[in-house]
Amino acid sequence: MSVKRPNPAQWLWYAVGGKLPDRYREWVLHDATAPTWLVRHVIRRLVFMAPILAALYLVLAVMMNFDLTIVLVGLGLGVYAGMYYSLIFSTHSVDSRVTRHGYPDQYASQVRKALKQAERDRYNATWRNGGATSR
């Protein structure tokens, strides 16, 4: 059975921090533990920042007629600072998101760690310990 994905409107709600219905619990866990979990986190943060950046651009560049270069540099620095802090707290943020959907505290981190260890064990069994040797 495949994991049920939320529709685009539900995903937008999820991206800005909302809780999805319980039927999407498994998808939330997959979202937090897939190999691309950090990329997904960055995309969610960019979606969260987009309306704020658009409003600031509208006010500063269009309504107040500030120099476009200064506005774009300022917005770029805002994106940089926002992404910097978002990435610093990405593990905590994703773990909190998973906990909000009914899983134990730090469950996503534990699952990611277990998946990474299983991959490392598989690699070692193939290439280090039991694999073909070249002599």
From TrEMBL:
InterPro entries: DUF5313
Pfam family, one: DUF5313
Transmembrane residue ranges: 46-64, 70-90
Keywords, comma-separated and alphabetical: Membrane, Transmembrane, Transmembrane helix
The organism's place on the tree of life at top rank: Bacteria
Protein name (Swiss-Prot/TrEMBL): DUF5313 domain-containing protein
